[in-house]
Automatic annotation (TrEMBL):
<dbReference type="InterPro" id="IPR050034">
    <property type="entry name" value="Opp4A"/>
</dbReference>
<keyword id="KW-0732">Signal</keyword>
<dbReference type="InterPro" id="IPR030678">
    <property type="entry name" value="Peptide/Ni-bd"/>
</dbReference>
<feature type="domain" description="Solute-binding protein family 5">
    <location>
        <begin position="99"/>
        <end position="488"/>
    </location>
</feature>
<dbReference type="Pfam" id="PF00496">
    <property type="entry name" value="SBP_bac_5"/>
</dbReference>
<protein>
    <submittedName>
        <fullName>Oligopeptide ABC transporter substrate-binding protein</fullName>
    </submittedName>
</protein>
<keyword id="KW-0813">Transport</keyword>
<dbReference type="InterPro" id="IPR039424">
    <property type="entry name" value="SBP_5"/>
</dbReference>
<feature type="compositionally biased region" description="Basic and acidic residues">
    <location>
        <begin position="28"/>
        <end position="42"/>
    </location>
</feature>
<feature type="signal peptide">
    <location>
        <begin position="1"/>
        <end position="21"/>
    </location>
</feature>
<feature type="region of interest" description="Disordered">
    <location>
        <begin position="28"/>
        <end position="51"/>
    </location>
</feature>
<dbReference type="InterPro" id="IPR000914">
    <property type="entry name" value="SBP_5_dom"/>
</dbReference>
<comment type="similarity">
    <text>Belongs to the bacterial solute-binding protein 5 family.</text>
</comment>
Amino acid sequence: MKKSALWAFMLMLVMALFLTACNNDNSTTDKEKEKGKDDSTKTSETAKSGVVTFGTDQAPEGVYDPAYSGSIVDSYIQDFTMEGIYSVNDELEYIPNFAKWEISEDKLTYTFTFEKGVKWHNGEELTVDDWVFALETVADPDYDGPRFNYVEGVKGAKAKKLGKAETIEGIEVVDPYTVKITFEEVEVNNLEKLWSYPMPKKHYEGIAVKDLGESKQVRETPVGLGAFKVKKVVEGEYSELERFDDYWKGKPQLDGIIVKTIDPSLTAGAFQNGEIDIMDIKPQAVKELSALDNVRIEETNGVSYSYIGLRFGHRDKATLTNVADFDKFKSKELRQALLYAINRPAMIDAFLEGKAEVANTVIPRTFWTAAEESELNQYEYNPEKAKELLKAAGYVDKDGDGFVEDPSGQPFKISFGHYAGPAAFEGRSQAIIQAWNDVGVKTEQATGTLIEFNLYNDMKDNDDAALEAFFGAWVTGADPDPSGLWGNDAEWNYGRYVDATNQKLIKQALSEEAFDKDKRKKTYVEWQKYFNEELPALPLWENIDLYAINNRLQGVHVNAVGFQTDVHKWSIKE
């Protein structure tokens, strides 16, 4: 199919089905919210209790402990039911939640003091033992969740993970409300990288770490610290949350919250009929929802981006390292050609209704560390430039079939993967495949079809050979440090990119000199320029976060990291 015809087809497809790419692309994320303590829980005369419904177009996986979850929908539920030691304000600064901290003169030891009287949903009081239990669990050799990178900086955590120690050396419990955490080395964001969610130790008592992620306590009867607690779950349909009267910041104003799975094509009708009160929405739903008298639309520049990952190797799970042993994308010119071949503005218009911005870096514009566009290669759509780069790198069509061979003369083909979801996902997957085929790089869809989302994540985790290139997206959280996603040995560095300069700059931006913000930004800009030149992954766009809110729902505060700040203050205005 010729390119012009393909784009016309995709535009009609998207308009006809009224669906679009997932606003957050179901990315794994750890979202912390600003939850400053508030002793005032009185409602106004017009503010009422009751139950509100949060809509989502994907069913939760049903994992209710943050240490084990990977689904954005599960994280939404957790943000109603769970809390961490710190939270994040509108300026993306980390601030105390139920713990305060002091930093030692050598910047290696943090002393945390917990608020007294904070209750778990089962009535037990929160102590530092619950947090220590969480840190020890995440560092356990039998822990099979995806959060070890949030603990590995603590002194002795790697030794425990590798089975060389029984406990984490850098943890010292002083009393039930005080604990000292010592890190391996001074890094400017040791606090931000530290796992913040305690686990209810008594609730999990007697369960082996290897069994914890699949346990009833994690998946059916969770116990949290948040304003709401899980009451009932109907798999694939809805989760019912009820008010936790002993919530430490004061009794929540709502009686409960329903998290309901709906067909995204029915969003407008659901809002109009009062079936949904709040939902993060697709860009193409904005026009229809804006016409409703009972709905307001809020949008913000968030901390998410979409990209194409490229395979460079595999992860050695025994040593927790990434090994670069796959050379298909070794040529920088090839990688640059692949990005020049993609018409990113056209894709944003076709699949995101313009509600995104082209990205040339993987640090979103929201962050103070983001490089100016003038400092980055723009990679504007230029298929002829792509062909020139391919030819210069030795990728030429030697047999006349319209597709290039590699520099050694062997057939060259890319297997590209994309996960399943709304109908437009098929369109954008085919747009990328077609763009690369158009410049002579033969590309086929991995497995021949879009891949179920959870299976897709498993394939990435296990370096499946079918995913040579793959569509991905991240919601970064509030910390601009990219080491957890792009560090040489990062677990979530799914392309397994390993590069000495990459690691040097990432470490430099976290070193003691980085306590000077100007120096830290300068290093991050240098890292972004290097990433932008080398392209170990292909940045596509930054999403604009969109929320539809029923006017009867009051107290919702939207910022760059989400919409669930101080949910105990949510109320209904009749």
